[in-house]
From TrEMBL:
Belongs to the H-rev107 family. This is LRAT domain-containing protein. It comes from Molossus molossus (Pallas' mastiff bat). The keyword Transferase applies. Pfam families: LRAT. GO terms for biological process: N-acylphosphatidylethanolamine metabolic process.
Length: 289
């Protein structure tokens, strides 16, 4: 049985990390969630909209062995609705068919509408501002970048144009590119998912730190979510990053160049050496040692 650092509470938004994308649900207590599920599960993370159904199911069954975590990512902007109102609204929708589209994040909009109200659910697809973390869901993985303004982002980029070549492992370079080019035609969204818990660093510091390491090359593994850890370090500072308890890659270098972001680090900078110890993570990945 999984060991949890923190159990979800009624009304919490649950983010389930599946292969290449996230599924979202709202926790309603007693181990159950309500979520928007595709009627045809075999279609997976498709590009075109189809029918989905609102279901109440056990969280463990919906997760299907994938790790999950609480992600009330708009709490820093909006006051959640009363828990009883969230649950009542969710239960009234059980059995209803709705449009389901992975690329439009229908399932995420569904749960944010329940927690914050429909008027605020579109916040998860707002226009980015400098310092924002950008989540880009590709078919088989998610890429992350930090928005630095004027349509540009800084992110970990593989050599060449074929991003899927990094699915197992490879080298990546810190690169500044237009967001539209990085997205490769996929939808993208702002996802500052720790703002509800931690205060972001000042925007000039975020951008300065990112620009000071452009051109550095590091080992990259999509399955270890290096790109998300990279941008989370930049936005919040590496000691505040929430990580899964999966193995973390070394960022060593034969001839390291100390980036200026080290001025805000208490210990060795992870962009130079080793990722910090893992933080909380819910689900099967968070087993006690």
């Amino acid at each position: 049985m999984a060991s949890f650092v923190e159990e979800p509470r009624t009304g919490d938004i649950i983010q389930i990390s599946r292969s290449g994308y996230s599924h979202w649900a709202i926790y309603v207590g007693d181990g159950h969630v309500i979520h928007l599920a595709p009627l045809d599960e075999s279609r997976g993370a498709g590009l075109s909209p189809w029918k989905g159904e609102v279901k109440r199911e056990l969280l463990a069954e919906v997760a299907g062995g994938c790790p999950y975590q609480v992600n009330n990512h708009l709490d820093h902007l909006y006051k959640p609705q009363p828990v009883k109102e969230m649950i009542r609204s969710a239960e009234e929708l059980i059995g209803k068919e709705m449009e389901y589209c992975f690329q439009r994040s229908s399932h995420e909009l569904f749960v944010t509408g329940l927690r914050y109200g429909p008027a605020h659910s579109r916040q998860c697809v707002r226009e980015p501002m400098p310092g924002d973390m950008i989540e880009i869901p590709h078919m088989f993985y998610k890429d992350w970048a930090i928005y630095v303004g004027e349509g540009f982002v800084i992110h970990l980029s593989p050599p060449g144009e074929w991003h899927l070549s990094m699915f197992l492992s490879g080298n990546a370079t810190v690169t500044k590119q237009p967001l539209e080019k990085v997205a490769l035609g996929c939808s993208y969204k702002v996802n500052n998912h720790l703002d509800y818990k931690y205060r972001p660093r000042p925007v000039p510091e975020i951008i300065h730190s990112a620009e000071s390491i452009i051109g550095l090359q590091r080992t990259y593994t999509v399955r270890k979510e290096n790109s998300e850890k990279f941008v989370t370090d930049l936005r919040y500072g590496w000691l505040r990053r929430e990580l899964s308890q999966r193995p973390h890659p070394e960022w060593g270098s034969a001839h390291p160049v100390r980036p200026r972001c080290c001025s805000v680090c208490v210990r060795r900078c992870p962009l130079l050496d080793v990722w910090s110890p893992p933080g909380r993570m819910l689900g099967p990945a968070a087993r006690s040692t």
